[in-house]
Design brief:
The complex is a heterodimer of chains A (335) and B (266). By secondary structure, chain A is an alpha/beta fold. Helix content of chain A is 36%, strand content 27%. Chain A has a 6-stranded mixed sheet with strand order 5-6-7-3-8-9, sandwiched between helices. Chain A has a 4-stranded antiparallel sheet with strand order 11-12-10-13. Chain A has a 3-stranded antiparallel sheet with strand order 2-1-4. The longest helix of chain B has 35 residues. The two termini of chain B are 27 Å apart. Classes of the chains: A alpha/beta (335), B mainly alpha (266).
Chain lengths: 335, 266
């Protein structure tokens, strides 16, 4: 990917023009993404947008129709995947086994020696707060506890990267908080993370970057901060706004102006004349801020197809600004 | 190999901890109870026909159950830990075969035990195994008799195990985890057509096409014959080699298909 080449930053997970077709249904269509080592990327999208298809491709459960995947800069995906931990969506773990038995089995599969494995399993069970339930069968666990078993399993082989598919799906608020807290801690420890989700709160909380999928295509991607900054509107906060000045402004700027108490919202291009007018009228300007939209607003714009790339913003993937990789396609898609 | 063994152990433990284990155990108890009711009638023909048939059916059942369990989404965290998918395939196949081998060993030992009792206290025997007494008395005399009957029974048993291996491999090959549905349909059609080719009702025009397909069943039928009669003929070796080729070829095909298959597990 061009981004990797220009950044010179080591990339943990990278896919270039990745496509996946199931029969004549395009689940993914030319997706290009990358997650730098130690970074965290959230893949957002509605059900059927292609999030799980992307995860399955990255983990080798399915095979790409076109495009390329690289893990830790290598095309040897078999070796690369051994350095990746995976937390599946709503996993059905081996219910007949205890958490300790199950983790021991997976650890031995990963080639961890018995002595070290026993210690590692005990440590991980403590990390996910399951020490007291370690000898109970997984069948007796709540959904949240099962998901924590999954996190422990994903961390067994001390992965350099984690691929997490809908980690809080189906959990109650308490369970969601617990899982997020663990993922937060792991991210802070520097584990690379790719999170497929449609839980906007957890994305905003956990990830540095976001890519929004729609109909198998990346519609918009970039850092969370840059995407939330719409770049389209400016908020002017004043000490007090006399009615006659408000009337003059309405006459000058028409529907582009929104007045909410002491705050005025304007398109960027109209902010300079508005400021001049306010200062000329002797109004005290307290603050001038770019208007930030919420991730929810952005997501809704994208998922409803009403999102438009701001003309003023460049397509510069390497400087933290938003990357607008693909336009909305007209090809056949899942939805 | 280590991963294959671990996966096989785990799949077996999973079976033992679930009700599915009863599906293997209950028929085995039924066979022991009913088929060996008249224990002194248990000769090689009975062994080959009844036990062979039972074990083949049990192989299909056990392999189907193991591979059905292996196709759940619990497999994702396991396969994600493997460099290739081969250990997962072989581990589950091994887990399907091990209970069959155990059942075979159990039934065969049970049978031999009663054969021994029959030798100690003969009671109107029609047993070929009566010659075992000679084997115990004099090795030279036993060798002079040709195949020692115990050896015959064991060799028939080995043929039975090979037949089970062929069936397990072919069953695994057509399971949804491994191959697309069209392969199952193709294989079933092929077997049906091959069996039909033995029918005298088959039209002459089809016989030309059908007979080569009939040859596909030769190793299976030869093994069955071997199990039933324990009569070794010159072509028996060819049948055994062909059956082994079925196992190896079936495994290679299953491995290829499984390695290149999209895993969308439920």
């Amino acid at each position: 990917m061009e981004q990797a080449a220009t950044d010179k930053q080591p990339v943990a997970i990278e896919c270039v023009n990745l496509s996946k077709a199931y029969g004549d249904i395009m689940a993914l269509n030319g997706v290009s993404l990358s997650v730098p080592v130690g970074g965290s990327l959230a893949v957002l999208g509605e059900n059927g947008a292609g999030k799980s298809s992307l995860v399955k491709l990255l983990l080798g459960f399915t095979f790409a129709s076109a495009g390329q995947i690289r893990l830790f800069g290598s095309d040897d995906l078999g070796a690369g995947r051994l350095r990746v931990g995976y937390l599946p969506e709503q996993p059905q773990y081996e219910r007949a086994f205890t958490a300790r038995e199950y983790l021991t089995y997976l650890g031995r599969l990963s080639g961890i020696e018995r002595g070290g494995l026993a210690r590692r399993v005990t440590t991980l069970l403590a990390l996910v707060s399951l020490s007291n339930a370690a000898e109970r069968r997984i069948a007796t666990y709540s959904k949240g506890m099962s998901q924590r078993v999954g996190i422990a399993a994903a961390l067994l082989n001390q992965p350099a990267a984690l691929i997490v598919d809908e980690p809080t799906s189906g959990l109650d608020p308490g369970g969601q908080w617990e899982v997020r807290a663990i993922l937060h801690r792991l991210r802070d420890e520097g584990i690379t993370m790719l999170l497929a989700s449609h839980q906007l709160a957890e994305v905003e909380d956990l990830c540095d970057e976001v890519a929004i999928l729609r109909r198998g295509q990346v519609v918009v991607s970039g850092t969370v901060a840059s995407l939330l900054d719409s770049g389209e509107q400016v908020g002017i906060t004043v000490a007090a706004l006399p009615n006659e000045v408000a009337a003059q402004l309405r006459a000058s700027f028409g529907e582009g102006l929104t007045i909410m108490g002491p705050q005025l919202l304007l398109p960027v291009r109209q902010s300079q004349p508005a400021l001049r007018q306010l200062l000329a009228a002797g109004v005290v300007v307290v603050a001038l801020n770019p208007v930030r939209r919420t991730l929810e607003e952005l997501y809704l714009q994208v998922s409803r197809g009403s999102y438009r790339q701001p003309a003023a913003q460049p397509t510069t993937p390497s400087n933290g600004q938003p990357r607008f990789l693909e336009p909305l396609g007209k090809g056949r898609s899942r939805r | 190999m280590r991963q294959t063994r671990l996966i096989a152990n785990h799949a077996l433990a999973k079976q033992l901890r679930s009700w599915q284990f009863l599906l293997a155990l209950l028929p085995a108890i039924a066979v022991i109870t009913f088929l060996f009711k008249d224990r002194y009638k248990a000769d090689v023909d009975f062994y080959g026909t009844m036990i062979g048939g039972y074990l083949i059916a049990q192989t299909v059942l056990t392999t189907s159950l193991v591979f059905r369990a292996a196709a759940q989404n619990t497999a994702y965290p396991v396969i994600a830990r493997l460099r290739t998918r081969t250990p997962y395939l072989l581990g589950n196949l091994l887990a399907a075969m091990l209970p069959i081998w155990l059942l075979w060993g159990w039934i065969t030992c049970y049978l031999l035990g009663f054969q021994y009792l029959a030798l100690v206290r003969p009671r109107g025997l029609d047993l070929a195994l009566v010659q075992m007494q000679s084997a115990l008395g004099s090795l030279g005399q036993t060798l002079g008799l040709g195949w020692c009957s115990v050896l015959v029974l064991l060799l028939a048993g080995l043929a039975m195990l090979l037949a089970c291996a062929v069936v397990a491999t072919l069953t695994a090959l057509v399971m949804p985890l491994v191959s697309p549905r069209w392969l199952l349909l193709l294989l079933v059609s092929l077997v049906a057509f091959s069996l039909y080719s033995f029918s005298p009702d088959m039209p002459a025009s089809l016989k030309v096409v059908g007979q080569p397909f009939g040859a596909l069943l030769f190793p299976i039928l030869a093994l069955y014959d071997l199990c039933r009669t324990a009569h070794f003929q010159p072509w028996t070796g060819i049948a055994v080699a062909a059956a082994l080729a079925y196992v190896v070829g079936g495994l290679a095909l299953a491995r290829y298909l499984f390695a290149h298959r999209d895993l969308l597990l439920g």
